[in-house]
UniProtKB/TrEMBL annotation:
Obligatory cofactor(s): heme
Name of the protein this chain belongs to: Catalase
Residue ranges of the region described as Disordered: 1-21
Biological source species: Pseudoduganella plicata
Reactions listed under catalytic activity: 2 H2O2 = O2 + 2 H2O
GO biological process, one term: hydrogen peroxide catabolic process
Assembly with partners or alone: Homodimer.
UniProt function note: Decomposes hydrogen peroxide into water and oxygen; serves to protect cells from the toxic effects of hydrogen peroxide.
Amino acid sequence: MSQQITTASGIPVADNQNSASAGSRGPLLLQDFHLIEKLQHFNRERIPERVVHAKGSGAYGKFTVTHDISRYTKAKLFSAIGKETETFLRFSTVGGEKGSADTERDPRGFAVRFYTEEGNWDLVGNNTPVFFIKDGIKFPDFIHTQKRLAQSNLKSATAMFDFWSRAPESLHQVTTLFSSRGTPDGYRHMDGFGSHTFSLINDAGERVYVKWHFKTQQGIKNLTAADAVRLAGEDPDYAQRDLFNAIAAGEFPRWTVFVQTATEAELAAWEGRTGWNPFDLTKVWPHGDFPLQQVGVLELNRNPLNYHAEVEQAALSPANVVPGMGYSPDKMLQARLFAYHDAQLYRVGTNHQYLPVNAPRCPFHNQQRDGAMALANGGADQNYATVEASGTSPQGLGHGEPAMPVNGPAARYDGRGVEDDYTQAGNLFRLLPADEKQALFDNLAGPLSQVPDEIVFRQLGHFDKADPAYGAGVRAALKARGRNID
């Protein structure tokens, strides 16, 4: 029998799987101390390397507007076709340590900073449009399964598939991870995604929800499993080397930037037809329902001069959005809005925004003072906000974000057994060509052959529900490895 989970102060935890939210869609509640403590402790588990996305590569560049989206957003960086904005992009692997190989089977981080005249906008995403979980309270647990066991200091396929097999919401991303796209050929030949649903707000205060897509102009290229393993031994810095050398040679990589947009009413109608929560990070918005609309082009054209100062200390956060942008009730996004900035405070320091790679390119002023490395400490400026006895008067600046509707009582909502975790994973499987399906079967059979029967049976059940041919293919691949599972 498992032990009762408690907080670090010994207080029993009633629910360790679902965050407290204002209604079933969120947003999350600050009063959920267990969520806050869990994320805060998780952010402080490694010194000084990042807990996730530890090994990364970065480069500077520019974003150029090619199509008008001012009807959706008042953000000034989109105000005119041809307008350019300086950018910084950090690529990374997710689960490995700082010295791990670039070619490991893993999602890739795709984190873009836009240095706009209204402050920094950070779009902190991945090379996949979905993720393994839909609630941030599960994130520390999930990442622990991808890291090393406490006793042996070895990674464990059993831990990974034990988690995935108990969380069918992960199936969509697991299918992506074990397909050919789980081992991209460097960073230049993969797409990027904001992944979460965000908001755009126009001058009239109207909100549309949005998903961001970065389509590589270099073409998609992936490594076979055998080549990925070979390169891990021959050149573990393969992706870093490829990116740096390409930029140094003037072969500047580019991505075409697109958005999908939808009003609240459009999303409600789509959910009514499909049953899918549009703010669920384990789901995509099909392009047939929400077509891609081109916005601009992202180009990387300058390598950093000092890796530690400009890449290792780069501190991005999805909470950084500029006027004309906003968030959504996505529970994973809501947790990340807190967790990323908190991680940077711990890892880099309370004044990390003063570092050149993190500093905005526009004037900034606040009343924050002191702390370690307070390079610009305000001097004789007033360090407190004057209280207005008659009430505050909005300045007409800033985000000006319209109210986001919430519904339902504040509670923890568990959608398991109710929500559809299989259809989109099956759709992805059915899109794969025959050779890529076989690669998927073989890639899954490798680690699955190392785990106990109970977990294999549970995971195969998920494959069967996505598509019977999916489960049958993995069974055949396991049998070819001498593991007969019936």
